[in-house]
Structure formats: structure tokens, C-alpha cells
Design a protein that fits this description.
By secondary structure, the protein is α+β, with helices and mostly antiparallel strands. The protein is built from 15 helices and 40 strands. The strands form 9 sheets. Strands 14-13-10-11-12-15-23-21-20 form a 9-stranded mixed beta sheet. Helix 4 packs antiparallel against helix 5 and helix 11 runs antiparallel to helix 12. 47% of the residues are buried.
């Protein structure tokens, strides 16, 4: 029986596993890097062991360090979570055979068989699982478009779509680097790419008594960069198709004597044919939607199966209602999903029914709390929000509403994108596939319309004025800026996340009401002030009363209202001098490491040419020339670390 469990992972999944362990009376042990020292999962563990360093390679991918931590803490079992070492057969072997600990997952031989995705395809094709054409050598590829995929790991890393032969070599090289950084294995292969396919997967579970059962299908078609961001259960399928998918998934599990939680992923083509993609020999990020519609705690089942207990069910349970999950990520969708780092000043989602374990209503599985630091070292996912309802439409509406009302302050997130996807008519009509985001540019627009940004800036200015009056040592009851004779208006200047500046001018009457206001750029809208406090402003706008919540942290001001949220920075009235940046400088959009430099000083480049590659949050970010010109400076060599705003290159435009 498991008594002390070490979770060889971090963040949200560590907290998720700890939650079930607490209900079972199992002592929990965390491992943590330097960057994660103050993370919530570390505080929640009964014991925590430090892994010196920050990068995955020197911490969460270091098997020797983790096994030392297990010995030092007296662990008798190891749960790998997902990502990092979860699908590493060598690690499973070292845990179970060398260290003599209980491994919470499938046997190492199963991980090895399915971890080599090319060999897995050949093995499962022999038991009748449908396959896509696959190549291991680039000179064998003749049918385009194709998808380059990492042979180890998953999560969308090491994947590239290639539509013609000219782009194949670079896509393979880039995918290899990204896969090596994320999984420690840069092996890739190529398979045919299916346009407008749906990503449908089946949750399976096996035990040591020979049972393998399907727990239902999920639809994970809404993806960005081949990584899922919206997942739901049950997948909406014809009964006959659902049965065939379940049969194929169970056949795959039985072919390898599967034990524990696993997922068999398929691509459902527009013609109704489905093809095997891969088997993930671990718990999936999206497991909560299956828990919501089955009522099962999958982590509890993992632990019981690892202890040798039989599964409590042998047939697929009926689905109760519908569940949808979204992945909240620290990234800016409008900037090609550029990861965001910094301090998460507030993380509040209203109406929660529970956290981390199966529940009806609204569930949150989060790796962060107010004040958490989002670092550059790990994945950008902050949390998962899951809604259960009797119907798919109700679940989507409830989830979109909770997201829209959430207060997410301090780093850019994909919240607005997720809300727009959930409210999209095509999503509601189940017109979804893996290319959904490519066809729906409208979902990238912020929830707050551009012409209403001025209202948010006005609320920020009025809340700041109320805060100043509340702390005034004398005459605190007078309206801010009040004069017997109207004179000049109050002025406040802000910049939004995109760098657009707004100047708000307003004047209050002696009774504190809003006498006049305007903004530059022009954006004034008829508004009447009903109430203003340091953290709440009530305005009547467009004949409706708006309650706007205002949260200030230093010069940052976050405004949440009924039609969207704004993140603003109050600009100083007398700006301090700053260092001048040379014309043509390209600045680092986020901290990271320069992994490759593609050009030399003095080289002529054209707009769009790759200059260098920046690696952050386990993904590669190409830095491209903004214009034709000559490379004048390359101050950062390959391997160099940079901070946000550092000069990466200087391009001098040539005279016409």
C-alpha cells in the first residue's frame, strides 16, 4: 500500500495529485526548482525537496536528482504527472526496478513500446488500428502537406506543418531542437497531414488483472500550435462511430497489456474515417472533463491500480451531462501566442464549485495563486477551468461567463480568446477542427471594444482620484481637483498593453459628479458618475449602469467591467530620461536564451528573414528582420541569456 508519494512534477498537476492523496491519507512529497521555491504546490506538500537549478534539464528532467529526493524523503511511490519524465521508460525502470519504489503508471515496457511512436504505429496496425502514412526519412516523403512530429513526448512540442518540399528540412531541424529541449529526445518522424480533421481521443484504463476499459471519448480539436486549449467530453459522435473508436482504443491497450491511465488519440477525417495518432502513457491534461461526466477520480484509480487493486468497473460508464475545459495560459494570442512572464497580482474566478477533484458545476485546477511568479523556464499554462452542465450549450455558456468575469491581473492571458471561441456560433454548431483558429480571425479580438477603452481609462482615473482623497490629510471630503471657479480639468495619462497612449481629462462638480470628460485619442462616450471609490467605479454609460472593478499595483491599473477588461499603466506626468536605443534595434519580447544566430554582421537581409532564434517557455520563437537592410550589430551570441527589452540585433536600412 502506498503511504508516501513523491510527485516528480510541478504546478497544477502536482496540486491535483496532492488533492486526491489528502482524501486517501497518503503523505505527499514535492520536488521543486529554484524558480518554484515559493510556488503553491510546494507549500501544499507535506514534504518538499529542493532540486538546485532552474532549467528542466537540471531539475525536473534529472532522474538522479529526483531519485535521491525520493530516498531522502522516504517515499515508497512516485507519480510522474504529465510532461517531463512521465513517458520516459528509463525513469520508470529506475523507479520500479532499481529503486524498488511503486511506479504510478504503466510498466516501463509499455511506455517504451508506445514512446517510440513509429514502432507503436507498426505494432498497433497489426491489431487493426487504422493508421496514417508515416515516414522516418525525409527523402521518402512524396505526399504533402505533412506533419513533423516528435517521437517522444507530446503537448504540441516538436510539431510543424509542412506544405511543400522546400520547407521540410528546416521544419525537421527546428522540431528536433524543440523536442530535445522539452523531452530530452530530438527524434522526429513525418506523417500525412489531414486538413480540417477533428482530434478525438479515448480515455482507457487497465489493471494488473487483465481488464482494459474505455472511459469515453473527448474532443480536443480547438488547438493552437498543435496544443489543445479547449477540450470536452463526451465527444459528440454518432453511436456507431463512438463504439468503433472505443473498440480500437481498447484493442490498442490490450495489445501492450496496458496498466493504469492512458489515452489513445485519433484524427477524425471529414469523410468519417479515423486514424491513430499516438498513445499517451500517462494521465492527460484534459482528464477533468472525463471525471466530470463519469464521476470517477482518475488519480484515485491510478493509485489503486498501482497498488494492485482491480478496477471497480469493466465496461464503459454512461456519460452524465457534458463538460468543457479550457487552458488558461500566460500568453498574448494577438502576438502569435507570445508567452508572458511576470507577477500574477490577482487570480480570481467567481462561482467555483470545487477545485482539483470531480465536481458538478465549475471546477478550477490551478498552478498559481495571487502573487505567483510566471517564469520563463516552464510551460505557459496557468490553470484549467472546467464547466459541467446537463447540455453542451449550457456548459459552454457557463464557462464563457465565468471566464469573462474572472480577474486575471499582471500578465497577458488567452482569456479573451477562449471566451470568444466558446461563444462562437461555429463552436456552438460543432463546426470544429484542428484548423478552427486559422479560419476564425474574429476570436483574436479583445472582449473590450477599442472604442470603450476610454471608459476603462476614465474609471482608472476616477478610482485613483478617490484613493488620493481617501488618504488626504486635510479636506478629504472635497472632490478631487475641485475649484470654486471651473478652471483646468484633471489629467491622467495611460498606456494599454499594446502601447497605445490615452490621455484622460475630467472635471468634477462640487458635489463630486462628473461635469465633463474627454480622452485623446478621441473616444469620449456619454457617461455619468454614480460612485467612485479606490477599487470600484459606477458609471452610467450608453444608458446602462456599469460597475467597474479597479485594482492598482504600483503604476499598473487593472479595470474589469461588464464588457471586458483592460490592463493599463499610468504614465508619469514628468517622464524620467531613458537610454536611447539605436534606430533599427530589435528588442527581446521576453526573457530567454538565444539558441541560434542565423546571420552575420554586415550581411544584407530582407524583411521577414530569420535573424536569430529565442527559446523561452520550452518553445522556439524566431526573430525576423522587420525591414530590408544590413545587420549592423548582433550583441548577443548563441547561448546567451537575455532579459525583456534587451537589444538582440540592429538592422540599418539601406539608402534607396
Amino acid at each position: 500500500m502506498i503511504t508516501r508519494l513523491l510527485v516528480a512534477n510541478r504546478g497544477e498537476i502536482a496540486r491535483r495529485i496532492f488533492a486526491t492523496c489528502r482524501t486517501l491519507g497518503i503523505t505527499t512529497i514535492a520536488v521543486y526548482s529554484d524558480a518554484d521555491a515559493d510556488a503553491p504546490f510546494v507549500a501544499e506538500a507535506d514534504l518538499a525537496v529542493h532540486l538546485p537549478g532552474n532549467t528542466p534539464a537540471e531539475t525536473y528532467l534529472d532522474m538522479a536528482q529526483i531519485l535521491r529526493a525520493a530516498r531522502r524523503s522516504g517515499a515508497d511511490a512516485v507519480h510522474p504527472g504529465y510532461g517531463f519524465l512521465a513517458e520516459n521508460a528509463e525513469f520508470a525502470t529506475r523507479v520500479a526496478d532499481h529503486a524498488g519504489l511503486t511506479w504510478v503508471g504503466p510498466p516501463a515496457k509499455v511506455i517504451a513500446a508506445m514512446g517510440d511512436k513509429v514502432a507503436a504505429k507498426a505494432l498497433l496496425a497489426d491489431v487493426g488500428v487504422p493508421m496514417l502514412p508515416t515516414w522516418t526519412e525525409t527523402d521518402q516523403v512524396t505526399d504533402y502537406p505533412v506533419l513533423v512530429k516528435a517521437a517522444a513526448g507530446g503537448g504540441g512540442r516538436g510539431m510543424r506543418v509542412v506544405r511543400d518540399p522546400d520547407g521540410l528540412a528546416e521544419a525537421v531541424a527546428s522540431a528536433r531542437r524543440e523536442a530535445a529541449a522539452a523531452f530530452g529526445d530530438g527524434t522526429v518522424f513525418v506523417e500525412r497531414y489531414v486538413e480540417r480533421g477533428r482530434h478525438v481521443e479515448v480515455q482507457i484504463f487497465g489493471d494488473t488483472h487483465g481488464t482494459v476499459v474505455a472511459l469515453g471519448a473527448r474532443d480536443c480539436s480547438i488547438q493552437r500550435r498543435h496544443q489543445k486549449i479547449v477540450e470536452e467530453a463526451p465527444a459528440v459522435l454518432a453511436p456507431e462511430l463512438r463504439a468503433r473508436l472505443h473498440e480500437a482504443a481498447v484493442a490498442a491497450g490490450r495489445a501492450v497489456d496496458y496498466v493504469g491511465a492512458g489515452t489513445v488519440e485519433f484524427l477524425l477525417a471529414p469523410d468519417g474515417q479515423f486514424h491513430f495518432l499516438e498513445m499517451n502513457t500517462r494521465l492527460q491534461v484534459e482528464h477533468p472533463v472525463t471525471e466530470a461526466v463519469t464521476g470517477l477520480d482518475l488519480v484515485r484509480l491510478q493509485l489503486l491500480v498501482a497498488e494492485g487493486e482491480p478496477l471497480p468497473l469493466t465496461t464503459t460508464p454512461p456519460a452524465d451531462g457534458h463538460a468543457i475545459e479550457v487552458r488558461l495560459c500566460a500568453e498574448d494570442p494577438a502576438q502569435n501566442f507570445r508567452p508572458a512572464t511576470g507577477t500574477l497580482h490577482r487570480f480570481a474566478i467567481p462561482g467555483l464549485s470545487g477545485e482539483f477533484t470531480p465536481t458538478k458545476g465549475l471546477r478550477l485546477d490551478s498552478g498559481v495563486l495571487d502573487g505567483s511568479t510566471v517564469s520563463v523556464h516552464y510551460d505557459s499554462m496557468l490553470a484549467k477551468l472546467i464547466a459541467w452542465a446537463p447540455t453542451r450549450a449550457e456548459a459552454a455558456r457557463a464557462l464563457a461567463g465565468a471566464l469573462a468575469r474572472a480577474e486575471l491581473h499582471g500578465v497577458a492571458t488567452n482569456r479573451d480568446l477562449l471566451v470568444r471561441v466558446l461563444r462562437s456560433p461555429d463552436f456552438g454548431a460543432l463546426e470544429v477542427d484542428t484548423g478552427f483558429l486559422d479560419r476564425h480571425a474574429e476570436v483574436f479580438a479583445p472582449l473590450l471594444p477599442a472604442d470603450l477603452l476610454s471608459v476603462a481609462a476614465l474609471a482608472a482615473a476616477l478610482a485613483s482620484a478617490a484613493a488620493r482623497r481617501a488618504t488626504a490629510p486635510v479636506l478629504a471630503g472635497l472632490p478631487s481637483g475641485w475649484r470654486n471657479v471651473p478652471a483646468f480639468p484633471q489629467v491622467a495619462r495611460y498606456a494599454d498593453r499594446a502601447g497605445q497612449e490615452l490621455e484622460v481629462r475630467y472635471r468634477l462638480d462640487r458635489d463630486g459628479s462628473l461635469a465633463e470628460w474627454s480622452t485623446d485619442p478621441a473616444g469620449e462616450i456619454p457617461a455619468r458618475l454614480e460612485e467612485a471609490t479606490p477599487d470600484r467605479v459606477v458609471l452610467t454609460v450608453l444608458e446602462s449602469r456599469w460597475q467597474l472593478r479597479v485594482h492598482r499595483v504600483g503604476s499598473e491599473v487593472f479595470v474589469d467591467g461588464p464588457v471586458g477588461a483592460a490592463s493599463l499603466v499610468e504614465l508619469p506626468r514628468l517622464p524620467l530620461p531613458t537610454a536611447e536605443v539605436a534606430a533599427g534595434s530589435l528588442l527581446a519580447p521576453l526573457p530567454g536564451a538565444v539558441t541560434r544566430v542565423h546571420v552575420e554582421v554586415g550581411q544584407r537581409v530582407a524583411a521577414g528573414d530569420p535573424l536569430l532564434t529565442l527559446e523561452a517557455m520550452k518553445l522556439e520563437h524566431p526573430v525576423l528582420a522587420p525591414t530590408d537592410g544590413v545587420v549592423a550589430e548582433l550583441p548577443v551570441p548563441a547561448g546567451g541569456q537575455v532579459r525583456t527589452g534587451a537589444v538582440l540585433a540592429v538592422i540599418e536600412e539601406e539608402d534607396a
